Amino acid sequence: QEYTMNAVTLAPRQADISRGFAMFIDEVNAEFEGEFKINWRGGPEVMPPFGQAEAVRNGAMDITFTSPSYYSGLVPASSTMNLSFKDYDDIRGTGYYERMNELHAEQDLVFLGEVPATDLAFHVFLNTPIETLDDLDGLRIRVFPTLLPLVKALGGEPLVLPMGEIYTAMERGTIDGFMRGTVGWAEQFQGVVTHVVYPGVYRAGFPVLVNQNAWNELPEDLRSRITTFVRDDLAPRIDEIWAEDVAEGVGQMEKAGFEVIELSGEDAARLREVAIESAWTEIAKTTGDDVAAELRGMLVD
Amino acid sequence: MLEWYSVIALVVGPLLVLMILGLPVAFSFLAVNIVGSYILLGGMSGVRQVVMNTIDSVSSFTLVPVALFMIMGEGMFQSRIAIDLMDTLDKWFGRLRGRLAFMAVGGGVLFSSLTGNSMGAIALLGSSLVPEMEKRGYKKPMTLGPILGSAGLAIMIPPSSLAVVLGVVAELSIGRILIGIIVPGLLMAVLYTLYIYVRVTLEPDLAPSFDVEPVPMSEKLHATAVNILPLGLVVFSVVGVIFLGWATPSEAAATGAFATLALAAMKRRLTWNVFSKSILGSANISVMVLLIVSGAVTFTQLLAFTGATFGMVDAIISLDIGPGAIVLTMLGAVIFLGMFMGPLPIMLITLPIFIPVILEFGFDPIWFAAMYLVAIETGSTSPPLGGALFVMKAVAPKGTTMNEIYRAATPFIICDLAAILILFFVPQLVTFPVEYMFR
Amino acid sequence: MPSPYHRLQRLFSRLNLWLAILGACILFFAATIIFIEVVSRAFGAGSRLWVIEISEYSLLYITFLGAPYLLEKNMHVTLDLVYNSLSTGWKALAQLVNSIVGLAVCLVLAVVGIDVVLDQVETGVRATTVMAPPKYWITLVLPLGMFLMAVQFLFQAVAALRTEVS
Ligand code: NA
Ligand code: NA
């Protein structure tokens, strides 16, 4: 008997990050042909991205490939997946993913694994030059909630804006900058982004969540084979596909005229430190000190 | 496996039946959403999803300007600022037949440069202009039509939130798109004006002209100074604050609302009665529009889940009819989908497939994007379920039937189609300004 | 002396009106906070991160607080294409069918909505936003509005039935 599950993703099919989801789905479908099949129904056009984890929990959807920060209201520890500078292999050895299993199970969700994208760090993009980290002081930076503590800690003025307003807000100077990954969009912002700050912070990774009832319908042997394949074979290989996207992104930014601001070694180190410190302090408020300390020990050296 | 067209018929059919029976549009959407989600999304879990998606779709900041522009429109209507404006225009152009219809197009163009949101534009122009135009003897085709037509220009003339979204989804330069759509937007305005001119010449009783007594120049100037110049404050409070970087386009709707109330106060007309009527009236219309949006968004997601829309898009690009014809078919498909789906999901579904094909054919993607945006605009004013039509129904005077709205919209849809064809055969209208600006 | 049925109708009518007025107040409140945000930012004061979020929730509350009143006053947008040309008898029949479908829709969403709210209370799920309020506060207004609209559709069904019989 072949078990079929419906899946949605946080991004539309053709988005750059969806390459990782496509690889995951294709390889799983090939590996377990005749036994298990993921049917990719689409992205945000099918289900609102911030509601996908709850949809999976409720059983309206079987699987979601989502963002760690999109369901931290349901599983507060979820957004920790971003808050590290380690790659997938390093984290795999710490028992982090097994611990995430337990934390997700508390909310009746199955955490199947991660579509890792360690290379995709978050950078600050500006319409005004800075020289040192201190120059960020007082600048208005558009953020999403995970990045809020960092921008605050750096003295910036965080702002929340809908995605569709960023362009005009940058163009007119309503905001001075925003934080985002470097891949796949530079050309669209040609003319309104003038500078990009290096190095980036954190890492990207996309949790794969499965509905508990749907998962439990699979035979135990199949469940364990899928988990092993996904975590030990597939994910490490997915973590390696992003280098060329990053290189392409760098080329695009160059073409779009973004000037690179390379922070001094001292500033770069401070940026990393503030990034870790501010974000984990915030995490502890929602997960409790014990869980935060335990997870931090796995993700941060 | 059902073919894509059978699926679309199966989902859209029952929706239309409920609406035609007279069930309010919002509840028709909700009914189909409940049944559809029950079948497709795992029984009761699916119905729970309807609850959550409904909530998600209404609590969206992109809808805030619709409600706020309503305050502006109702405020201008209740405090009779709109009437003063028309009286003044009568003094200047009293003999020009159809002047208020031209004004609606002019207002549409002006307002388009203020906002990026068509629904907000209809809400504002519809509630402030339509009642007074009817009082002055204008018939529906010349009141509802010009506003439906020109409000759509909001997305064609920067700032335009949909153009930005188009750039993001299609991975094209937003700046180039914003430049590229200006001439097409103006072209549409010209076509609308030509149509109005021809129509009121052929059917004079649609837009009466009065034999007004000649008004002395001093009175004209005085009326202009008192009634039109202060409107500059309102215009500045929307467009100026965006330009100066004080507010985003959505936030500017709030400054516009307060400027309108301030203007009413300066004219000593902001009585408690005017104020409360403006706020209650705008709240009522916002409710009508938002409830429909909440149902329509979830409906669209359901349709996307079935894969029927993808099936249609795939079928189009595999047609064996030559590149040019495929481009036109793509645009036709966008208009077709726009008859019952919102713009954003249409973009998410079609653009990632269309744009690579356009590049493969060697066409200019910005040229395609401009025509695509006109097609999106056309779809949203197309019967039976184009979103703009419902907003108009909500703001139009009591007793306006959907049939009248459909009939008023049709000529302007034809103008839009003409605009698409003109752009198709004269790509330079899009490409020349872009090349000039980005040399 | 009005019948208990009429008194019940009047009671709900009052409630609908007051909730609609509350909705209008929320709309003005949302406009005000956005306006203040723009002005204070222009004068160099910082940005209040909750403004956008609160105005989003406001839209939701405006919608479901105001919808029952509009239903009572028959102000919701309809596609009156065929309906207007029906004879009185057919109109009443269509009215009956519509109000029963509407009743079913609103009742289902009210009941399932309460179920979702209870579940959200139990799991303690929060919105994934800056303010991160408990989600049931956001969801709560939907079953409330749906319940009141179910009551309205019930009244409409009774009215249609009476026309049909007479
Ligand atoms: Na515009
Ligand atoms: Na139009």
TrEMBL record, chain B:
InterPro entries: DctM, TRAP_DctM. Residues 14-429 form the TRAP C4-dicarboxylate transport system permease DctM subunit domain. Keywords: Cell inner membrane, Cell membrane, Membrane, Transmembrane, Transmembrane helix, Transport. It is a multi-pass membrane protein. The chain crosses the membrane at residues 7-40, 60-79, 100-127, 147-170, 177-198, 231-264, 285-304, 316-337, 344-363, 369-396, 408-430. Pfam families: DctM. One of its GO terms (cellular component) is plasma membrane. Its main location: membrane. It is found in: Cell inner membrane. One of its GO terms (molecular function) is transmembrane transporter activity. Part of the tripartite ATP-independent periplasmic (TRAP) transport system. This is C4-dicarboxylate ABC transporter permease.
From TrEMBL, chain C:
It holds the Pfam family DctQ. Its main location: membrane. Keywords: Cell inner membrane, Cell membrane, Membrane, Transmembrane, Transmembrane helix, Transport. GO terms for molecular function: transmembrane transporter activity. Coiled coil: none annotated. One of its GO terms (cellular component) is plasma membrane. InterPro entries: DctQ, TRAP_DctQ. It is a multi-pass membrane protein. It is found in: Cell inner membrane. The keyword Cell inner membrane applies. Residues 32-162 form the Tripartite ATP-independent periplasmic transporters DctQ component domain. The chain crosses the membrane at residues 15-36, 48-71, 92-116, 136-161. Belongs to the TRAP transporter small permease family. Part of the tripartite ATP-independent periplasmic (TRAP) transport system. This is TRAP transporter small permease protein.
